[in-house]
């Protein structure tokens, strides 16, 4: 067996690929784990910053600044009829978990009604939308990874009250890699 085939077959090449950058940088595995450490956090149901993002009442629970920009999570607490029209993210994946009420969700052209305990995954570059259906408010935990979308939400929450200026909304969302379809 030649050398390249041996390294490939035994996985030694992978080990060298993973370890060599650490050795060259002079950092041990312990040093790297300290750099990537995120502080533990407990967030109670009534805690977090609540903002109104064009009718989507969001309570931001954990931000990218607290997770090394790995994930951002918020709770949507919205009235029947509220929702987000079909759109596509180019930067983040999203997971939607319904806690209370009913949410009609469309992912990649397939529509389902989610109830308490149900979830949906909307990968980046896949069209998706959601709308609260039924007669009661819905509570939904939404996760976006990687984080960063919270900056856009804050910008959208600063728009004047009343019917949204869809051109302005589209411009803001576009800067964050989101387009409406």
TrEMBL record:
Coiled coil: none
Domain of life: Bacteria
Phylogenetic placement of the source organism: Bacteria, Pseudomonadati, Bacteroidota, Flavobacteriia, Flavobacteriales
Name of the protein this chain belongs to: Cupin domain-containing protein
PANTHER family according to UniProt: PUTATIVE (AFU_ORTHOLOGUE AFUA_8G07350)-RELATED (PTHR36440)
Source organism (scientific name): Maribacter cobaltidurans
InterPro entries, sorted: Cupin_2 (IPR013096), QDO-like (IPR053146), RmlC-like_jellyroll (IPR014710), RmlC_Cupin_sf (IPR011051)
Domain (Cupin type-2) ranges: 77-142
